[in-house]
Design a protein that fits this description.
It is a single chain. 67% of the residues lie in helices and 0% in strands. It starts with 10 loop residues before the first helix and ends in a 7-residue tail after the last helix. It is mainly alpha-helical. It has one domain. The longest helix is centred in the last third of the chain and has 30 residues, at 303-332.
Amino acid sequence: MMDPKPTNRLLSLDFMRGLIMFLLALEACGLYEHLRAAGSESPLFSSFIGQFFHAGWHGIHFWDNIQPAFMFMAGVAMAYSLTKQIQLGVSWNDRFIKILKRSALLLFWGIFKRISDPNWFALDALDVTDILTQLAFTSLIAFLLFNWRIRYLVIACAGLLILTEVCYRFWDVAGFNGGFAPQQNFGNWIDWVLFSQKGNTYVFINWLPTAVHTIAGVIVGKLFLSGRISMRVMLGTALVCLLSGYALDFFAITPIIKPIATNSFMVASLGYCLLILALFYWWIDLGEHKKGLLFFQVIGMNSIFIYLFFDIVGKKWLNGYVAMVLDPVFSSVGIQESFMLILTSIVIFALEWYLCYFLYKKRIFFKL
């Protein structure tokens, strides 16, 4: 039995987007860093808060799934957006021009957000690994494949993963033939050829495998719109992806490495994305539990704006300014420094959330 077909909006997607932005905002406010420092004496708490930091080169933490979820959600939203445009009679050429403009803006902002670095525009220091930069390419790929039938989209995903595996496993250029070794791999060779960059951990060509996340999102969005999706299919596919990804790593076939988006990482993280969306869909859209969603929705409705705001304005000015104002106040009432830093981060987040709420109430939405 199929689940009911969503009507106007997929509320679970709105919630998931808002939750991701909520978590990213707390990271930008420095909350996780301060919590880790304050609870360093507790092994259990340190293990828990460690999930809000990247695993490093090998392995996967909760935080390593944030970017895949962002890419995946973009694909689901694209399915809804493009389907609506097609229904309104927007031509393919006009839709293509629109996605080209959006990709160009994503690429620009992904690079521009590093403007605080004096060398931000120097080719050998250019950061082309940001999530917005990657999304610029994955969105374009997903658009070009959008009209394909679902079975062919699945084949395309498999093809991208196989191509990535072959490139990393069999690349034979001296100095860059280390397979999945850090700073000695195919991705690093691409960075060297295009940007004269060496020693990167995350690499530019990541958009090739991570396009799978966006295409998978398109597939799920199409299934939602057609009413041909069920909890059983979503949960079953999520389980298969998780087992496959971890098995590839466990049996030392392909290690789980996020910085170069290996196949095992791609498949495992896709499993987490499917599992999370399935649970939210069951809870919100099917169960009609809608109370308390506004807190997250106001952030998700302006996701690109607030992402740029807390990364450019927040980290480079607002965080320090709020700390400058509050530190003397907290010190005067005897609050310990570790707790003072945590409170400051919460205040910073509250200010950024209220900014999103103000824009939401004024019906101001920044879209690329």
